[in-house]
Structures are given as structure tokens and as C-alpha cells.
Specification:
Elements (H helix, E strand, L loop, with lengths): L1 H13 L1 H30 L7 H12 L8 H27 L3 H8 L1
Length: 111
């Protein structure tokens, strides 16, 4: 274990730019994880200061959705169909363009 640690330190001191980039990325990752946990803790895990927080959220959602209730099935079906149609269209356009090319000919031309 000690030999592995000394080898790692030796390799990291040989490449100072890589080491500084790796340390900066790790610092950003730790900072981001801490910030995300702080937000999740404040919003989700901490107890709500209001009595009946579920009613408050439902009321806010109904106000934001212009009177659409949380169990409005026709609206839910319309949204699902719209999302499915847009996903199909987003996949169909590149797929049709890809069908125009022969992959073998493209590979032959690339070499």
C-alpha cells in the first residue's frame, strides 16, 4: 500500500499540469456535491415550517398550471401524446437522413 502511494505521488509530481487539473476538477466536484446536498437538505429533508406542506404544494401547482388539477386525465393524455410525437419526430429526422448514406461507402472513403 505504501509503495503504491509513493508511486502515485512520484507520477503526479512528474506531471504538474495534469496534477493541477486533476486537483481542480476534484475540488469542483466536491464543491458541487456539497452545494447539491445543501439544496436537497434544505428543500427535501428538512421539515417544513408550514402546517400541511402537501396542501401548499398542491395549491401552488394548481396556480402555476392555470387551474389544471393534478389528476386531470385529458390534459395528462394530451401532454403524453405531444411528448411522444415530438420524441418520434426528433428521432425520425436524423434517422431519415442517416438512411441516405451507405455506411460501407463512407468507411471506404474515410481511409
Amino acid at each position: 500500500m505504501l509503495a503504491d502511494l509513493t508511486h502515485a505521488v512520484r507520477e503526479l509530481t512528474r506531471q504538474p499540469r495534469f496534477t493541477s487539473a486533476a486537483v481542480a476538477i476534484m475540488a469542483l466536484a466536491v464543491g458541487t456535491a456539497s452545494a447539491v446536498f445543501a439544496v436537497v437538505h434544505a428543500v427535501v429533508l428538512a421539515p417544513s415550517p408550514f402546517p400541511g406542506p402537501d396542501r401548499l404544494l398542491a395549491r401552488a401547482a394548481r396556480h402555476l398550471l392555470a387551474g389544471v388539477g393534478p389528476v386531470d386525465l385529458p390534459t395528462l393524455a394530451a401532454v403524453c401524446c405531444t411528448m411522444a410525437a415530438s420524441a418520434a419526430l426528433a428521432c425520425a429526422i436524423p434517422g431519415c437522413r442517416a438512411l441516405r448514406f451507405d455506411p460501407i461507402a463512407a468507411l471506404r472513403e474515410s481511409h
